[in-house]
Amino acid sequence: MKLFFSTALATLLLLMSGCVAQQTTQLTTTAILADAAVSPAPAVTPSRQVVKKSAERSESEAATSRWVIRSGRIKKTFSQTAQRAGIPNLQIRKLEALFGEQIDFRRDIQKGDHFTAVFQPGKSGSLRGGKLLAAELNSRREPIRVIRHTNRRGISRFYSGSGEPLGTDFLRNPLKNVKVSSHFTLRRFHPVLKVYRPHRGTDFAARKGTPVMATADGVVQKREYQNGYGKVVFLEHSGGRYTTVYAHLSRFARGIKPGRAVHQGQIIGYVGSTGLATGSHLHYEFREDGEYKDAMKVALPRIKKPTTAERKYFYQATADLRRILLSEQRERRIAMASGGSQSRR
Fold it and tell me: Do residues 269 and 212 make contact, with C-beta atoms less than 8 angstroms apart?
């Protein structure tokens, strides 16, 4: 009888241990599933393509990130608005000269017109020593664009938005504000010598100290004092085919020495009355192959039109600049449209 009860008790204990094990297994499985249900999903890591794109910036993207954009809406004059926008005077004169080749500043620019200019700052980070890369003037006419471009031959100059090279090889005038006091003539009464003699140049009346610009890229041939001309600068252009003369200067600009290269629009001296002169003015001469020409009437050398291949290269090379100008124009129109809708409300 004891043996029977012992066997039965052992069997009962074995069955109970099996149930407990089964329950423990079920509970453990349930706990694992519950953990899986409540645990947060792992964070999605950026794809390699995105990382690669941000890490490997092209030279074009790196260049555009360093460009500076200045813009403004004209209230009184273009120069005043440009100054308020933080554009240096030297760059303002350049913009006026470039836009002035396509429009009449006095007649075509009106209050409310908008402009945008893109610059590459100089080494110090300032715009004074930087480069003007592109600009756009939105008047009541079609937008007027100027874009700096370096062609396949390595020559840099400004072009219109359609790829036409701007300007001539020479500026017509060496002063910003022009007032002719004496024209080119073969017989003029000299105010100092009191005799009639040829006047083979053009005199511009201007205050003492007014900056004088080189009318074309060239090389300084002479920078000296002569009895008649006073302080004078001679520039050679196009390998010596053309010569320009700037006389009666009060002083020379820094760095102007014989043999030194100058670029169009660079300040080479300042108006004065040295030499045979009765008052402050600039005497300017234009010579072609040694022959005196009337600087106000001579046909200035034109730039050749670009070929189809050159124009295609222009569009490819200036794509970033044109994209910036279009983007600025689009944002301005959106702002004007939203402002107009708010005012109507």
Answer: yes
